[in-house]
Amino acid sequence: MKVAKRTFDAVIVGAGGAGLRAALQLSESGMKTAVLTKVFPTRSHTVAAQGGVAASLGNSTEDNWHWHMYDTVKGSDWLGDQDAIEFMCKKANEVVVELEHYGMPFDRTDDGKIYQRPFGGHSMNYGQAPVMRSCAAADRTGHAMLHALYQRNVRANTQFFVEWMALDLIRDADGDVLGVTAMEMETGEVSIFHAKATIFATGGAGRIYFSSTNAFINTGDGVGMAARAGVPLEDMEFWQFHPTGVAGAGVLITEGVRGEGGILRNSSGERFMERYAPNLKDLASRDVVSRAMTTEINEGRGCGPDKDHVLLDITHLAPENIMKRLPGIREISIQFAGIDPIKAPIPVVPTCHYQMGGIPTNYKGQVVVPQGDNNNVPVRGFYAAGECACASVHGANRLGTNSLLDLLVFGKSAGETVVEDFEAGNLSLKPLPDDAADVSLARLARLENQTNGESVHEVRLAMQRTMQKHAGVFRFNDLLKEGVEAIKAVAERAKNTEIGDKSKVWNTARMEALELDNLIEVAKATMISAEARKESRGAHVRDDALDNAETPNGRDDANWLKHTLWYSEGNRLAYKPVNLKPMSDDVEPIALAKRTY
Amino acid sequence: MSRVLSISIFRHNPRDPASVPHMETHELAEAPGMTLFIALNRLRETVAPDLSFDFVCRAGVCGSCAMVINGRPGLACRTLTAALPEHISLHPLPGFALIADLSVDTGTWMRELAESLETWVHLAAEPDIDLLEAPMEPKLAEEIYELDRCIECGCCIAACGTAQMRPGFVGAVGLNKIARFRLDPADSRDDADYFELVGNDQGIFGCMSLMGCEDLCPKELPLQTQLAWLRRGMARQGLRGIFKKKDNE
């Protein structure tokens, strides 16, 4: 197959919030940039974010970045790197105000400032009471943000390659990254995008689970590409289950509903979160709420004929407030649950939502890997931001509204780093190896010639069911052990997928097969990392980790206060220390403590 | 509930010389809570592996799944099969280039629109991010937000008589954007600037007020009111231009 070559200063893969924010930095600095995206930019999954973006503006209640940092470190169950967290919380106001200038239509307070609402795990004065920190455009914050960023990119004349799917990362003998191979979906042709800098902003891989709030495009493409190219994946055992997906449909209901006063109730109408989190109650951190809900259901206090969900109640709120602050939620409830939340509570269930781990980076957006004694050596020419990256600010559990903040701060930071490196002359267009496209072409040839294979749909379903059963909200030693073998078996099956449509043009079947390769890397990383981590921390809670004085909530800091690194080759695991030291002297390290809300 | 749906789908791949446009009908057992998104995926997984259609968010906010459902443009992900008769016909959205089957290229169209109408906030000066945000009346913020809810799905173009007759007409999606920036105090453009962009037959004066856009907008944007206001503003601006010219003569 003929492989065309295109040359750029930089190539960005993904045009969601992180990709668009990074692209803005590059386009405005005059770098020749290509942004590859599977879907038109404003269709990216950032569009589905609802509740808001965190920034300690202090518009409605007193607030400062120290409190935000404390909440984020505590939310991460101390697995987040404190230098990156300090960086993000300090930068929050700047990136939000900037966005407001770009035309993002935030809700306003009576005195004209950006409206802020309470959100889970965000508190004032180090955990004392809920704080109003989430800057929101009603309950469609992601939509407003994505469109504002896109508009600004049109102004900056950013060049998008829409409906192009990146296939594989190109590295040379030194391990430096020289770009990607990509397939144009319209023609099925493969091209090489040769660049001095490559930024991955491909989002998460929530589709490894059967029940997910994620869009169908969230197949972990960047994460899978990095893994196949020998880059380790960090902390992949940590997945966020959002407490409130619509039961059955999986569609997200924002935590902002609880921020506005929504209450979770079990079959007897009890506000059960009072038992699990006496201070923050329904606004405790997401992992805590999801586990409480699952416990209620497991102990027979679920609602409905099958007792398989709980209820999110906002019937006590003023209808005009619901219409004003939560119009999208009302629309979704009527559409997908068949109920009007003004009159009846919404059936909800914990649903896979967010990937805390990813491609290891530092706060500058550089991808970092262990080399010799140094655990964090930048890979030349390779950057990542947003959900596909692990900076690591979310650690073992992400706070709501910190994901939109993450993609703004680290999208911008990765862009700034690339521009700095470019302008300093530190980036060069290294010669492409002769075999630059061979891996991709071999994958395509395999699919083309496969006979007697399994359908992509069947294998994907097997993967999703395996992940759901063996690595869900609660994790069990024996199930994890079985899960490792089960997911390895599914991975073998994925090597023999066969597609029913072999045409060249707009072939979605081929694309789904290629996406499955990426999902499988993520699924293996998750299961194997989870089985190995013999403690409970954040979203990773296992039955055999005991809550006692040495291991509060089952968290074993003596042995497990460290980041997991999973290498695809040989399913090898390595570990690196958590950075407990902030980046400046402005703040003391947040000391380890038992996590309670 | 135990209906068997009969779904007729427009099939054509314009890039395949052998492809002839035709309707293809499949039967499918209806399931509780089934949307067209679920139905189409089920068909692709079982009997029609090469069927093209677009979906991303499945929650009615990304705007990629608009198609013509029993003759009316709408979002497939938000359409419950229970709300439709047993026989369902699906066509691609008219007014956009056909990619294949139910998939159309709204992206190229929307990008061209964004460039031609310059649909971004034109700031008088680059933002100073060290300053606090620019204050705005909550009521005005709400009005801007209301119009900013557009998901660029293309339903208003498919539903518009002018857009179907006159390529290049910016449609309700374009005019609504101008209305949105016109409200925004951060945007330094005035009516003379907006008149340059939409004060013509490709813009506001091409609208025939058939109101298909408002009837079929999945986000229920107040399009007719906005278009009416914009028409008045632009007409006033147009007259101003004429009198100015006369003064100069």
Structural class of chain B: alpha+beta
Low-confidence stretches of chain B: none
Tally of individual helices of chain A: 16
List how many beta strands of chain A DSSP finds.
Answer: 22
Distance from first to last alpha carbon of chain B: 74 Å
Tell me the major beta sheet of chain A. 8 strands, mixed
Report the structural category of chain A.
alpha/beta
Can you give the helix content of chain A as a percent range? 25-40%
Overall, the morphology of chain B is: elongated
Number-wise, the strands of chain B total 7
Which word captures the global form of chain A? globular
Q: What's the name of the CATH homologous superfamily of the largest domain in chain B?
A: Alpha-helical ferredoxin
Q: State mean pLDDT of chain A (0 to 100 scale).
A: 95
Chain pair forming the biggest interface: A-B, 69 and 60 residues
In spatial order, strands of the major sheet of chain B run 2-1-5-3-4
Sequence stretches where pLDDT stays below 50 over 5 or more residues of chain A: none
Q: In angstroms, what is the radius of gyration of chain B?
A: 21 Å
Task: Write a short abstract of this structure.
Chain A is α/β, with parallel strands linked by helices and about 600 residues long. Chain A has helices at about 15-30, 65-75, 80-100, 140-155, 220-230, 255-260, 275, 285-300, 320-325, 325-335, 400-425, 440-450, 455-470, 475-495, 510-530, 555-560; strands at about 5-15, 35, 55, 115-125, 130-135, 160, 165-170, 175-185, 190-200, 235, 240-245, 265, 310-315, 345-355, 360, 365-370, 375-385, 390, 455, 495-500, 560-565, 570-575. The mean pLDDT of chain A is about 95.
